[in-house]
Amino acid sequence: MTFLKPLRFLLALFLSVPVLGQTIGNPAAVTPRMRVIMDNDFSGDPDGLFALAHLLASPSVDVRGIIGSHLRVGDGFDNSTRQAQNAAAKARELMQVMNVTRPIPVLAGSDTALPNDSTPVRNEAVNLIIREALRTDTKQPLYLLCGAGLTEAAAALLTAPQIADKLTIVWIGGPEYAGMALPPPNYSSPEYNLNIDIAAARVVFNRSSVAIWQVPRSTYRQALLPYSQLLLQVKPQGKTGAYLSGLLEALMVRITRYVNIGETYVLGDSPLVLLTALQSSFEADPSSSEYEIRQAPLINAQGEYAYNAKGRTIRVYSRIDTQLMFNDFFAKLTLLK
């Protein structure tokens, strides 16, 4: 019967996935259709390493580089002066656990925030972003996935403004928008990721025309992983599952000395994978998540939004498809075993 033909095609397509050099099913079934660079504070909250593991296990993305970025000075996750270098080391450690054999550059970004919103830092991580954005030998779109501050993104835009129309920044960060959501009880201001480098956020939002897909605090807090699922779906899944769950359990124990965090944990960086690797098959887009088109606000020196009548439009995600995101993550961990 004719209706069986598309069914057979879809089954052949989605049940054949190559992962980390291991051939699972038909290796030609899923191939990269976009380029990504991951920029994250991997020596901080372990949610960045969960997202990186998920990204590395996703065959539809070509990971062109991994950047270890800094935290705020004196941050409790890593109060050293080598935060970016430590972050890069943690990314390499995860890749070793996952037995990632393909060559992916892992670079340390700046260990400090920008001195102001007009002076860039220069390092190999910034050069990587610029070089990848200026490539002319591929038509695959480029996404810069930022799960912490925006230091390297801002530095690249200041150094080479012409790259602004050649990539999309997907950023986990920023406070709630009026009319979209209310802040949580006892919220911090400025929001955590924005506060890492306010000057960099001012470059990206106020001074650049780069495309932005923003996942603000009200949305990234939806990515709640229950401890029960960590034990059942992550911890038993080979070396990678044991490594990731070990990081999170150790942190949960440490935090509990100061505050009772209950039985869920926010894996707030995982939407970086959802919005890229898990885009829809045809007419590619993150079709199962919801966003609003808003004028980009001005970010003031205090890290707060200010109305910008002339602001360009950006995507601000209001709801993420956590079911798709977590189910795919759990399935890929199982395939890695």
Automatic annotation (TrEMBL):
Alphabetically ordered keywords of this record: Glycosidase, Hydrolase, Signal
Q: Where is the signal peptide?
A: 1-21
Which Gene3D superfamilies did the record assign?
Answer: Ribonucleoside hydrolase-like
The Inosine/uridine-preferring nucleoside hydrolase domain covers: 36-282
> Which GO MF terms does the UniProt record name?
purine nucleosidase activity
In terms of InterPro entries, this protein maps to: Inosine/uridine_hydrolase_dom (IPR001910), IUNH (IPR023186), Ribo_hydro-like (IPR036452)
Does the record's keyword annotation contain Acyltransferase? no
Q: Which GO terms describe its cellular component?
A: cytosol
* Any one GO BP annotation for this protein: purine nucleoside catabolic process
What name is this protein filed under? Nucleoside hydrolase
